[in-house]
Specification:
By secondary structure, the protein is an alpha+beta fold. It contains eleven helices and 19 strands.
Amino acid sequence: MSVPVELDGVEINVVGGGVTAPQGFRAAGIHTGVKRQRKDLSLVVSDRDCTCAGTYTTNRVKAAPLLLTKKHVDLNQTVRAIVANSGNANACNGPRGMADAVAMVEQTASVLGIAPEQVLIASTGVIGVPLALDKILPGIERASQALSPDGGADAALGIMTTDTVPKEVAVKCNGFTLGAMAKGSGMIHPNMATMLAFITTDASVERPLLEAALKDAVAKSFNMISVDGDTSTNDMVLVLANGASGVSIEPNTPEEQKFRQALDYVCITLAKMIARDGEGATKLIEVRARGAKTVDDARLAVRAITTSQLVKTAIFGEDANWGRILCAAGYSGADLVLEHVRVELGDVLVFDQGMSVPFDEELAKQVLAQKDVAITVDLGAGDAEATGWTCDLTYEYVKINADYRT
C-alpha cells in the first residue's frame, strides 16, 4: 500500500516495511531473555557497504555503546550493520561497559563475516546494570539467522522499552526509498533524549551531504520534541545509505532537495510518534511559534512551551490557561512585542494585542479534549517560525517512573 504525500511540490509515497523498505537491507528482532517477555535485540544489516552519518546526545554522561558507535562513524569508513539491545542501557558500568560493547560488536562482526569497525551499536534501558552477555551474545547469532527483507517490524519491536507502540515509517521518492524505526517514550527533551532512531536508504549519498542533511533534519524534528525535560545517556540517530537503488544524490541538485524533504518527513514523522507515545500521555500537543525575529527565536519559544510542566498539566486538565503559554514564551529568551502577540488554542483566539480576549470556554475545552491539540503563538517580532511537539503530563507518567527499576 502506498499513500502519496505532497511536500512543497514534491510527491512522497508513504509505504510499509520500515528499515527494510529500501533495497539491500535485512533486519531481525528477537527475544534473548534480557526482558521478561518482549523482544529485546535488533539487528539491521545492509548487503552492501554504506556511507553513514550520526547525531548523538548532548549529555556529558555518555554510554559505552554510543562512544563506540561514534568512534566507528568518525573513522569515515563504510558501515554494514547496526546491533541494538533494549532493557539495559550499558551506561555507567566503567571499563566493563566498554568491554561488553566491544564484545557485542565483535560477535556481530563474526556472525556476519564483516569487520568490527563496520558495526554500529546502541543500547537502551536501565542505567548502571551490567549487560547479560550470556543472553545477548547467543542472541546476536540467532538474530543473524533470522535476518529478512521483511524483518523491519520485528526490529522496531526489539528496541522498545516503555514504548507502548513500535515506531517505523518508510517513503519512496524519485526512485529511492528511505526507511526508519525509532524508540522513545520517556526521558525525552530537545537536543536528543532517551531515543534511538535508525534510518536506511538505498540512495547513494556521500558522507558530507549525508551529515548535513541529517543535521538539518534532526534540528527540525528530534530536537523539537519534549516529553519530560530529561536528556539521556544513549541517544543517537544514525542514517545508512547503501546506493542499491542506483540513484545518486549530488549536492546542489533537485535530487538533493527531494532527498532532504524525504528525510525531513521521515524524521518529523518519527518525532511526532515519540511525542504522542510519551509515558502516560493522552494527547499530542503541537506548538507553533510564528512571527519570530529569527528561526532560532522561534525554536526558543517552542521549546520553552513544550517543556513547561505547567502548560503540559493544563492541557491534560483541558484548562485553557493561556497565561502559562504566554509566560513560557516570555521567559524563553526569544524577542517578542507584547502588543502584537497572539495566542490561539486550535482555532480559538485567547490572547491578542497584549491582553486577554473574550472566548468561549466550553469551545476551548472541546479543543483541548481532542487527542491532537494545536497551540499557536505569534511573537509579533518578525516572519520566522518553528514547530515542535510534546504531550500532556499525566498521573500515569508519575506511576511509570516511580517504579521504573522495580
